[in-house]
Amino acid sequence: MYVPDAATAETGKSGLRSVDRKVWEDMLDIVKCKILSAVNGLEMDAYLLSESSLFISPHRLILKTCGTTLNLLGLPRILAIAREYAGLSKVYQCFYSRKAFMFPEKQLGPHRDWGMEVEFLDRIFDHGSAYTVGKVNGDHWLLYMTNPEDLSSGSGTEMSSLASSFMEIYEERWAIVGQGGLYTLPLLPPTQDYTIEILMTHLSPRSCAAFFTPDTVDPCGNGEFTPGMHAQQLTAKLGISNIFPPRLTQLDAYSFVPCGYSSNALIKWGDVSDGVERAGEGYYTIHVTPEEGWSYASFECNVPLAIRRHGGAIDNPEDIPDLRTLIQRVVRIFEPGKLTMTLFVASAEDGNASDVDGCETAGEDAQRAFKAALTRIPKRSSPGNLYSGESPAIEKGSSLVKAYKRTDKINYEFGGYDLAFASFEMI
């Protein structure tokens, strides 16, 4: 089935982007979250939610939720919307992933247990595969993925009855406890597939303090500052707006009362590799809960990044960062005591490249970048100047150094993807 591009679509949007916002709002009612605001790019729309984010492209949807939301219960409705409103009757590939919950006993519906989540997805998709990456009794990451060669989507009746059985039992309860992600790709594969996640806990007291919202912010928009206005100021103060060059970034942010922060950004990126120029629009999204005892921040980005700068070039804030620089910019803002990173990237077309002497997988390259980035992290210079674009190479033993030790390292090669997983703790 053909999906027209924006230039040929009557409204300038095609596929899933042509679906009316009210339809998505009704779907999110099932998940138990609301749209707070939105930004629209050339290739995708980014919705900031009361419980994380929703990104919609013509043939791809990414739904990230947190707290005790019912992410998976939205999937049957998403598939129905794709069929009924966008003419997309087949799913090319589906990914569902999350970090181990901080408070699994507070989860609802199928999210109470990983086995229940897998069972729910297996009722919808044929031949899905479920993985646990990392220490079962420590930090680990859970992934369910389908094979793009299997284009069946199960029984619609079965999907609806299964979702309804969970929805009738459980009522909405609110708490920010962790991170989950739902990725559905109806019909067509993306032009590039690359996702870096940085999941951080035990944030520093200084970092946490910044995300407690002052009384001057009225969530109803009647105070001195609206939640959006305060969030934009905080974004600039902490250096979040400089993670990627501001000239390439369209950013939306929200400060929650009494605490918490979320932001979405659409990024214009370009790359020249092997003489071929590539360009596109990607995103990053940040979500923070700063409460003592379960402080947490997540960063996710799908802009394809170089592992390292060629020729030892220094960090230039006006350029798209390489992977090492991106990690340092993010970690410097939140100063986590512990963090887990995953890089999930489509494998090279030559699947045997890693078997050739001198060739390595994207996962192996990423692991070196993870370690190099976290060996020495410059601290923020002062509360009034929390971000600096200077080169991170500083002298060992300096009082401005934070360092981490790696506590876990795992690489996976499967289903046309490479996965690099690593956990670190502050020394």
UniProtKB/TrEMBL annotation:
GO cellular component labels: cytosol
UniProt cofactor(s): pyruvate
Metabolic or biological pathway, per its Swiss-Prot or TrEMBL entry: Amine and polyamine biosynthesis; S-adenosylmethioninamine biosynthesis; S-adenosylmethioninamine from S-adenosyl-L-methionine: step 1/1
InterPro entries per record: AdoMetDC-like (IPR048283), S-AdoMet_decarboxylase_euk (IPR001985), S-AdoMet_deCO2ase_core (IPR016067), S-AdoMet_deCO2ase_CS (IPR018166)
Residues that bear Pyruvic acid (Ser): S52
GO biological processes: spermidine biosynthetic process; spermine biosynthetic process
One Pfam family recorded for the sequence: SAM_decarbox
GO molecular-function term, one example from the UniProt record: adenosylmethionine decarboxylase activity
Site residues, Cleavage (non-hydrolytic): E51, S52
Record: active site: S52, C66, S262, H287
Alphabetical UniProt keywords: Autocatalytic cleavage, Decarboxylase, Lyase, Polyamine biosynthesis, Pyruvate, S-adenosyl-L-methionine, Schiff base, Spermidine biosynthesis, Zymogen
EC id: 4.1.1.50
Family: Belongs to the eukaryotic AdoMetDC family.
Name listed for the protein in its UniProt record: adenosylmethionine decarboxylase
Highest classification ranks of the organism: Eukaryota, Fungi, Dikarya, Basidiomycota, Agaricomycotina
